[in-house]
Amino acid sequence: MDDTYTYDLLVVGSANADLVIGVERRPHAGETVLGSDLAVHPGGKGANQAVAAARLGARTALLARVGDDDHGRLLLDSLRTADVDVSEVRTGGAPTGVALITVDPSGDNSIVVSPGANARLTPADVRDALPALRSARVVSAQLEIPLDTVGEVVRLLGPGTRFALNPSPPAPLPPEVLAACDPLIVNEHEARVVLGDTGDGAAAGERSEDWARGLLALGPRSVVITLGAEGALVADARGTARVPAVPVSAVDTTGAGDAFTAALVRRLGAGDDLPTAAAYGARVGAVAVTRRGAQASFPTADEVARATAG
Length: 310
Ligand SMILES: Nc1ncnc2c1ncn2[C@@H]1O[C@H](COP(=O)(O)OP(=O)(O)OP(=O)(O)O)[C@@H](O)[C@H]1O
What we know:
Blueprint: E1 7-12, E2 16-22, E3 39-43, H1 45-55, E4 60-66, H2 70-81, E5 89-91, E6 97-103, E7 109-114, H3 123-128, H4 130-133, E8 136-142, H5 147-156, E9 162-166, H6 175-180, E10 184-187, H7 188-195, H8 204-217, E11 222-226, E12 232-236, E13 239-243, H9 256-269, H10 274-289, H11 301-307
Parallel strand pairs: 1-4, 1-8, 2-6, 4-5, 8-9, 10-11
Antiparallel strand pairs: 2-3, 6-7, 11-12, 12-13
The protein binds adenosine-5'-triphosphate.
């Protein structure tokens, strides 16, 4: 493999501070309840996927925007500690994005997100980052930043660079963005929204082959549907293939999708075919669900090798 690329992966996406409080129950309108001590964790899908890929050994950079505030500095510190190149992380324009999370005793989350600086990552920021964009073997994005910004990434991609999109939170996608995806990576809920499907998803597992074919018909060169403990499904012009999950005792599925996606794009960049890269994603996702937290749960390549066979 040639070494003309500076980065194995450039992630274009969000960085959030996750502010978590445990509560006995959620307050009704107008009510106050007391909760646990506040825990502040680095998060956001862009930062999570960048950290997960770097921990697996990929030379990774993040194009993102944080506020000129304590949360922004916390995020930059955690990215640097994970060996993510932060030279394309912009600062200022709005407060750092924040997710206010309450967790009840059964583990159910209620979340309010303030996108903050993430919403100010503009197409102009992408143009300013053109040298980095052209220096990456793979570019990946999610949708916690403006769709126009993702559109500009697609427009400016170099001819040899592979693009992967995880449309989370999901939205209908313009044809030029869909056409650039190789792969489009969705869970069942995201698949339904991208397809414009209004069904109840009751037979989701059985319908995933149909969804994969429907998604491919929208234009991406390949599709990956993640199915939680059921593993994943990959599809391209050659057909569809099931990727089994690695059986584990899950303790916290937070960040499983980010771990899977980062591992998948990392391996695609290293030359694996789609089923092989997805199988590695399943191994990394499986390790992540055996640990608590999001970024805290992402394993190194050695830990993946020790924890899972293959
Ligand atoms: N309980 C589990 N046991 C083993 N592997 C799992 C489990 N949950 C998830 N995985 C692995 O992680 C991958 C991604 O998980 P999932 O489909 O839940 O993504 P997601 O819905 O985007 O997750 P999240 O939004 O919680 O990060 C799965 O395809 C699977 O390979």
